[in-house]
Amino acid sequence: MKKLLKKMSAFLLTAAMVTGMCMTSFAASEAKGEWGKVTSESTANLIVGVSSADDTSANGGDNLLAYKVVDIRYDESSNNLTYHFTQLFQAFQAQEGNSWNSLNPKGYGNIEDGELKELLGAFTSYIRNQEPKPEADYKATADTDGIADFGRVAMGQYIIVGDGTSTGAKIYQTVTAEIEPEINGNEYQLNGAYTVAMKTSKPSIGKTIKEGTVTDEKIETTAQPSGDKHDKHQQTSEIGKEITYELNISVPTYPEGSTNKTFYAGDILSKGLDLREDSIIVTGYHAGSEEGTMLAKDEVYTAAITVNNEEGTENRLNTSLYVDFDFDKIAGYDHVVIQYKAVLNQDAELGTTAGNPNNADLIYSNTPFEGSTWKPEDGERPGPGEGFGQDEDMEIVYTYALVIDKFEEKHEGEKLSDAVFELYRTYSEEAGQGVYSEPVVDEKGAIITLTTDENGAAAYKGLQQGTYYLKEIKAPTGYNLMDEPVIITIDASTIPYYIETEKEVTHYTYTINAGEALSGHEGQAEINGNLVWMNEAGVVMTTAPGEGAPDGFSAAYVKAETKTVTNVIEINRDAEGANGFYKAGVSNNQGAQLPSTGGMGTTIFTVVGLCLMVGAAIVLITRRRMTGRD
Description:
The protein has 630 residues and is mainly beta.
C-alpha cells in the first residue's frame, strides 16, 4: 500500500509539473478521436478545416504547412513528459535583438494570447523570409471541401500557415495545433485525431454608379466579361455630364506579425471619361455603422492619377487612378469607400457595342510573412500573381446620338440644308402655344443648335436615354418653319445595322441660260424625275412634272458638275458585325404656311442608340444637295 501511495504521489507531482508547462493558453486544436495510452512513439491524425466569415468554402489545391515549435517527448521508464524548443525555433531566438531569446518552454506555456500571437507571427515571418526556406515538418493540400489532412503527426505544438499559393487569393491566419497528451484516469493518454479551424479572409471590391446616369432598360444583357460582378449594365449619360462612382472595399485581417500588407485599389477609366482630380474622397466605416470617417489623404492613403497616351502621340488611351493605403491605419474598419467623379467627354463611344467602361481592381498581399509592404516609391507596382491576390469589378456607361435627315415633304431625295434646330427635354402647350423647356446645353451651358449640311444631315452625339423635342428655329430658304416639335425617343431598341462605304457623289451647278448648259445636259435639269427651276437670285426649286414654273422662276440647266469621293453611312438591316443608327426624318413644306390638317403635323420618330465610331455620325446619309448646287 505504501509503495502504491508513493507511486501515486510521484505520478501526481509529475502531472502537476507537466500541467504547468502545457500550451493551453492559445490552444487551437480539438480532440475528436479515441483516447489511448501514450507511448514514446505515439502519433495522432491532424486535420485542418479552412473557414471564413465571408466564404465558407476553401480553395481546393491550397497548400498548408505545419512547423513544429515545441517538441514533446514521453519517457516510458519514468512516466515523464519533457518539452523542448525545436532547432528552428532556437535559431529564431538566436537572432540579434530578438526579445524572446531568453524564453524557455515553461515560460512559453504561460504566455498570454496577445503576446503569443505576436511571438508566433514573428516566428512565421522568420521562417518565410529565410533563403532557402526551411522545410516544413508536415505538408497538406486542401481538398474541394476545404479539408487538409496532415495524416499522422508526432507529439508537439505546431504553427500552421498558408504557403502563399492560394488559388482563391485568400489570406491565411496563422494558427497553432497541439498534439499533446493529457491525464485520463491514472495515465497519460493521447487522442487519435485532432482538428483545427484555420480562418482566412479575402478582401473584395465592388463598383457602383451613384449619380449622373439614367437607366435604359432596353439595353439587353450581354456576356459578362471577366472581373464583372454585374448581371447587366444599363446606365446612360450625356457628354459633359458629371458621373459619381464609388468603390466599396472590404478590409481583410492580416495575422499578427505580418511584414507585407500591400493593399491598393486601381481604377482604369476609358478615354471617354475625364477624372475630376479634386473629387476623390475616401471614407472608413465600422461594421454595422452607416456613419463613416473621412480619411486623411497623404496620411492614411495616397492617390496617383496618370493619363496614358498612345506611344509617341497625344492620343489618350485611358486614365489610371491608384489609391494606396497604409494598411495599419485602416485595419480597424470593416470597409472603406473611395468616391470620385468623372465627366463623359467628346471621345465617348456611342451606342451599346462597347460603351465607356472603367475597370476597378484591388491588389493585396496574400503572403503576409514574405517581404515587406510595397510603397509607391518602390517602383514598379506588384500585380496579381504568386503572392498577391486580386478582386475586380467594372461599370459601363452608354451614350447615344441624334441624327437628323432634312428633306422636302413628298420628295425625300431632295435634301434641305441650313435648317437650324434646338433640342429640349420637355414640351407642353399653354393657351394654344407650345412651350419648350429644359434645353440640351453644351459644357458651357449654351443651348446647342443643329444645322443641316448640304446633304440635309445634322448630328449631335452624347445623349442619355429619354424623350426629346426637336424645335426648328430656322427653316431653309423658301420653306415654312415647323410650328410643332419632332418628338424623339432615344433608347437602345430596334437598332438596324449599318455599313460604311466609299461613294462617288456628283454635285451640279445650275444656270437659267440654256446656252451655258453643259454638253450632254442640254435639256431642263431634273432631280428624281422632278423639273428644276431657278430664279435670278440663284434659289433652286423643283416641281412635279406638269405643274409648270413657279412664279419668278425659269427653267434651270446644268452648267457644271464636280465629282467627289466620300464615306457614306448606309442603313442595311442585313449587315453583320456592327450596330448602327436610325435616322429621324424631318420634312418641310414649300411656299405659304399650310393648315395642319393631317400629313406630318407633329412628327414622331424614334432614334435609337448610334453604335458607330465617334465622328462617323457627321458623314452619314450623303445625298444630293438642293440649293444652288446639287
